[in-house]
Amino acid sequence: MKANTLLFLIILILSGCAAEAEDTQSTTDSPSEKAEVTWLELSDALKQQRHRPKPIFIDLYTDWCRWCKVMDQKTFADPEVARYLQENFYPVKFNSEKAPPININGKEFELVSTGRKSLHSLAYALMKGDISYPSYVILDERQQTISRFKGFRDAQDFMVELETALQ
């Protein structure tokens, strides 16, 4: 009798935990929480900007940059950040060591060998030679820099940077 009661209580507790886990899963997987950044190539962002003007946000990164990966996993994955970037900018991921040549405002930018690695001359120009990763640049509709900042930012601090740039 005691064994049956104990078994019943264990089943009851486990079923309650399972139901709670389902409730948690359904609230975190709701459509409003699934916002993602749809990253563009810079050339595509420039084309889209001609038809519908809004600023271009550029994430300057490299494959080896640890903090760039943390930004992807934490900050850019934050639903509020993702939504804000999508609604207010053309978001661009720009690999500063591998990106193809690009022409902006009649000026050609390309990869330049720096010895063991390469650096894209656009990344260098956008950051005025003060390059580190991750770095971020916001260009207005005429491809003029309106903001630049560097380093890891959590979602809250990152939102402040983005909102300040648009003021």
Features:
167 residues; 2 domains; 6 helices; alpha+beta; Glutaredoxin; two-stranded antiparallel sheet; globular; 4-stranded mixed sheet; 21% strand
* Structural shape: globular
Tell me the count of domains: 2
Class by SSE composition: alpha+beta
CATH C-level label of the largest domain:
Alpha Beta
Enter the CATH topology name of the largest domain.
Glutaredoxin
**Rg measurement, Å:** 23 Å
CATH homologous superfamily grouping of the largest domain: Glutaredoxin
How do the helices and strands follow one another from N- to C-terminus? HHEHHEEEEEHEEH
Report the total helices.
Answer: 6
How large is the share of residues in beta strands? 15-25%
Poorly predicted tracts of residues: 5-32
Structure report:
By secondary structure, the chain is an alpha+beta fold. The protein has 2 domains: 1-28; 38-165, Glutaredoxin, CATH 3.40.30.10. 44% of the residues lie in helices and 21% in strands. It has 6 helices and 8 strands, in the order H-H-E-H-H-E-E-E-E-E-H-E-E-H. The protein has helices at residues 2-28, 42-51, 66-75, 79-88, 121-126, 155-165; strands spanning 56-61, 90-95, 102-104, 107-109, 111-113, 118-120, 135-139, 145-150. The strands form 3 sheets. Strands 2-1-7-8 form a 4-stranded mixed sheet, sandwiched between helices. A two-stranded antiparallel ribbon has the order 3-4. It is globular and about 40 Å long. The relative contact order is 0.15.
